[in-house]
């Protein structure tokens, strides 16, 4: 009887779902788990056993940093979102098996995991590397049309396809009014992001159209549409803010909140911050205290949301990295929400009340920084002489 190994999922898997390596070893076997050639774990076993290596690999990731820039194609800091995994098994009789796969930060729900496993496939084969459909790392929708409000535009992450016979992969974006196409190329297999603000600007500068509807073409079948991106007009509102969060697939997305925001201040004072000192003049004790941290709590009503938008908000509420984007600052926060009922089959838009508490309280208060710093602001730009200012 020889050493036998297998893994599910086979080529790509999320680390917040099980990555299961099954081993059948007639003698004592030693297995090693490597992430980007760095040894992460060593273990032993004999007989038929299964090892879940997902939690081991979760520790290999750095902090996800949203890609930034003005180009149409943006690149992630590689290996913060995925790692190349090597799983080696050796027995005392020198039988050896090696398994290779790519582990990605993120996960899918348990029902979907069971579905894909029972059908001997996975989310990467069905979605992220299926370039005949919606292959973006978005939790807005699973369908082929991705609707995004213009105030919610955030680079859309995807895996650059490998095109046979070409050194670089590419996707084609077609603007539906003019029918014009722009090709966007990058390193195949890498995690990239499509910057829709830059794509809109390209079609405006080149063809004079304010584009709102784009077809993402299938890179393997000429003329076939893979998915569609529709940019919606944002509703007018006296007050609005946004939330940027790490979605279930491990990339940042944005939600626009148009409801009224309120701020509640609270001092985090406890008995330990108050102490007594002796006053020789009166031969008595007086109370003193250390500086008290002041916290701010933000309460926001989401405004009217469709059922799919409410589901998107649920992904935000479960996120482990959330930023409240206000007109003058961006704050890392922890959300909570009031328990509320909503119709299972929605007949009208509904709203939610969400509370955001910053992850830090501060006892030091300083004036807000201004655009011009501490100097007197210019009235006109630097192309004018000082007499205009």
Describe this structure in words.
The termini are far apart. The chain is globular and about 90 Å long. It has 3 domains: 120 residues, Outer membrane usher protein (Immunoglobulin-like); 88 residues, no CATH class; 148 residues. Helices cover 11% and strands 41% of the residues. Strand 10 and strand 11 form a beta hairpin. The chain is mainly beta and 389 residues long. The strands form 5 sheets. The chain has a 7-stranded antiparallel sheet, with helices on one face. Strands 1, 2, 3, 4, 6 and 7 form a 6-stranded mixed sheet that branches. Strands 8-14-13-10-11 form a 5-stranded mixed sheet, with no helix packed on it. The protein is built from 5 helices and 23 strands.
Give a short overview.
With 389 residues, this protein is mainly β. It has helices spanning 54-58, 110-118, 123-128, 196-207, 307-317, and strands at residues 4-8, 12-14, 20-35, 38-52, 73-75, 82-91, 96-104, 145-149, 156-159, 169-175, 181-186, 191-194, 213-217, 225-232, 241-246, 252-257, 261-267, 274-279, 284-289, 294-301, 322-326, 329-337, 353-358. The chain folds into three domains: 4-123, Sandwich (Immunoglobulin-like); 145-232, no CATH class; 242-389.
